[in-house]
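Throughout our pipeline, every protein is held as a single compact record rather than as scattered files. Nothing more is needed to write down the fold, since each code stands for a local backbone conformation. The record that follows is passed on verbatim for readers who wish to inspect the format.
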Amino acid sequence: MADLQDDPHTATAAVGPGSLGAEDVPAPTVARGSLERAAALLSVHPVADGCNTLVWTLRQSPYHDIDTPDAGVDTDIPRLRAGGVGAQFWSLLTPREAAAPDPDQVVSDTLEQIDVALTLMRRYPDSLGLALTADDLADARNRGRIASFLGPVPGRTLTDSLGALRAFHALGVRIVAPAGAPWAEEGLTAFGHEVIKEMNRLSMLVDLTGCPPLAACQLAGASKAPVIISNTAAAALNPHPGNVTDEVLLALRAAGGLAMVTFDTARTGDSLHAVADHVDHVRAVAGPAGVGLGAAFGSEPGRPRPAGLTDPSGYPRLIAELLDRGWSEADLSLLTWGNAQRVLRDAEFTARAAQRRRTA
């Protein structure tokens, strides 16, 4: 991680296509000392990023080779390493899922997404390691690999039976997103309560991304394990429909959950400073233990990104900005790594307790 002492974003600007017209927008200035401190912190507490959509991109464009700098996509292994990313949650949602009326098609799409993700792990075994537990998170870091968690999958794949949920768990999936599922649209149904109970037993995380506030609060209250929002921003700063309200952030705080801030111009604004404002707000409402990072990289050129955060190599810049704003290194270590690890461990503790009750 010593190469992070240099300016990683500048070094990869020529291959950082995640921003529309990014070459015309000067990157924000960050004090050299802060950038060096950020690099040192990330070498010990790397980023556990809550959302990357590369699986869908590779399914559409399988010719990308992410082992080398690839100008055709905003995520590759060199830029993940330059940005200090030590764990990645790979989203298995598809853009067409919301428009697919046939549940069987949603299941088929999801299985194909899982297959692409597992193929990705096999193709780059020296850099990516499938992670199933919090221990796997730490083990991958110690081995110099990027811990790779599968999920979320869409809650719409679960209809009248919990069998699909258990099958996804057996395939390595550890996150489910209830948004759009009939059992969670207008309050949890009886089946919805069974889904959450079984997810708690299996140590699968509930991802509230895309859930309306009422449903999100009910889901947070129904789960005995912490819930997450894998990519969001503060609705108080930008009333985008995908952003989280303070009401939900307070529910997350009460439930020990985690809101992970995205790097999406439409939701955060067009600069690194705007993203930092959203991170500040989420921490202020959800608490230092309730904020994380879920950039939602993984796309081909054309998606607007905040200047300075056009690809994963920009993470040290954001950490340096937060240092300049007075964040302590302890709080930053929670933001990047500690909060994600804690949520996973808490989910595992809940699962063990549920399993003991079942066998008692």
